[in-house]
Amino acid sequence: MPFEGLAEKLSNSFKKLRSKGKLSESDVKEAMREVRLALLEADVNYKVAKELTGRITERAVGEEVMESLTPAQMVIKIVNEELTALMGGTGERLKSPAHPPAIILLCGLQGAGKTTHAAKLAYMLKSQGHRPLLAACDVYRPAAIKQLQVMGEKAGAPVFERGTQDPVETAKEAVKHAKDYGHDYLLIDTAGRLQIDEELMDELRRMKEAVNPTDILLTVDAMIGQESVNVAKTFDELLDITGVILTKLDGDTRGGAALSIKAVTGKPIKFAGSGEKLDGLEAFHPDRMASRILGMGDVLSLIEEAEQRLDEKAAERTAQRMMQNKLDLNDMLEQFRQVKKMGPIKGILQKLPGVGNKLDDVDIDDRIMDRTAAIILSMTPYERAHPEELNASRKRRIAAGCGQKVEDVNRLLNQFRQTQKLMKQFGGKKGRKLMRGMGG
Ligand code: GDP
């Protein structure tokens, strides 16, 4: 699989950042130097690696750190976004023509996987409910037509061929055939060469002119890394391709081609192929690739931490409502929900100025919390907001609803009133002064 080495190296650099807490500009620069080396080792184009790390450094140093993330995570987030953008952002699909069939011209060097991927693409389109037609226009290799026929049959797609007649003529006839027989996709397999030569390019240019393709897809072999990026650049200059099928990802451990093609040629990778079987083709998703490079662990931990921080934000909000004497049972319930994630009400109280670690030795039994939460859950939202309106019959209903006694309900209400009283004291002049101190 691609990116193995890169993922590991990036993970190590980020580990170092994490251990630092606050990041200085030189921490970020040092990390980006490591990232650049890792990218070069993954066979990413030198200029691409330099520009990418430059952009990341600029953003990481200049950007305000989001409240929900640590500085190290902010850097990972930026790296993730920049890698995704580098590979083409949202990912691009096949174009749809105003009138079918969509004509897809497949080109590429010999052995890149053109014929195999023409068949894979036909198989994919078929499974999506389309009616693809394959056209055999590689007429120089005697076995090529046969190969396409064998694979086409496996894919369940018919193959149009005219033997060794001029491939441009064959392509034109294939378009007519596709129209006549109601095929909505025509996939044209063309001849490859070991190297780009004028004769091949001339034939492809004539074919392009003759059939006016909706997409010109270049198949490039991921295993040859930067060489395939150079091939893509040349093909694009001569043919103005619309996208790339990156093949043999199963044999590529470095990933340089996947990372550089879009940046160097400006053309997106539309599909990624691996293995020789027909189902080894996927739409290329830059964001998923970026996650793979960063190691799923990093991205997941990023999300988790952010969520946890959001909980803390909620707790702070509750603390502020307490200070403003607006606390009701809904807030209490919210606190109980947080209990298992961030510890008992203590966590919230500790956010009050002056409380800090004074509560460190206080123990709160979680089961009592659960029972109390059950009582509040038996109330209607209105009752939770207006506990003072709970009369005897409401209390009976609530107690029955949670399988507890009316006394338990009363105890909760007493506790709550105590808390409210306490908060009222805070809510006076002294409290408001404190609130200003907290920025509230
Ligand atoms: P063409 O000359 O560009 O048409 O290339 P072919 O489609 O004939 O493929 C050349 C060789 O690479 C064949 O042996 C294929 O089975 C093999 N091949 C094609 N695509 C892949 C791939 O994604 N992964 C692997 N491992 N082999 C592939």
Automatic annotation (TrEMBL):
Q: What is an example of a Pfam family matching this protein?
A: SRP54_N
Quote the entry's note on domains. Answer: Composed of three domains: the N-terminal N domain, which is responsible for interactions with the ribosome, the central G domain, which binds GTP, and the C-terminal M domain, which binds the RNA and the signal sequence of the RNC.
Query: Which GO biological process categories is it annotated with?
Result: SRP-dependent cotranslational protein targeting to membrane
What job does this protein perform? Involved in targeting and insertion of nascent membrane proteins into the cytoplasmic membrane. Binds to the hydrophobic signal sequence of the ribosome-nascent chain (RNC) as it emerges from the ribosomes. The SRP-RNC complex is then targeted to the cytoplasmic membrane where it interacts with the SRP receptor FtsY.
The protein in question is named Signal recognition particle protein
Q: Which reaction does it catalyse?
A: GTP + H2O = GDP + phosphate + H(+)
Molecular function GO terms recorded: 7S RNA binding; GTP binding; GTPase activity
Question: Which residue ranges does the record annotate as region Disordered?
Answer: 426-440
Protein family: Belongs to the GTP-binding SRP family. SRP54 subfamily.
Indicate the enzyme's highest-level EC class: hydrolase
Read off the SMART domains from this record. Answer: AAA, SRP54, SRP54_N
InterPro entries per UniProt: AAA+_ATPase, P-loop_NTPase, Signal_recog_part_SRP54_M_sf, Signal_recog_particl_SRP54_hlx, Signal_recog_particle_SRP54_M, SRP, SRP54, SRP54_GTPase_dom
> Keywords on this record?
Coiled coil, Cytoplasm, GTP-binding, Hydrolase, Nucleotide-binding, Ribonucleoprotein, RNA-binding, Signal recognition particle
Give residues annotated as binding GTP: 108-115, 189-193, 247-250
Where in or outside the cell is it found? Cytoplasm
Protein's UniProt keywords contain RNA-binding: yes
The organism sits in which domain of life? Bacteria
Q: Which residues form a coiled coil?
A: 296-323
Record-listed E.C. numbers? 3.6.5.4
**Lineage of source species:** Bacteria, Bacillati, Bacillota, Clostridia, Eubacteriales
Any one of the GO CC terms: signal recognition particle
Organism source for this protein? Answer: Acutalibacter muris
Limits of the SRP54-type proteins GTP-binding domain: 268-281
Q: Report the main location listed first in the record.
A: cytoplasm
What's the subunit arrangement here? Part of the signal recognition particle protein translocation system, which is composed of SRP and FtsY.
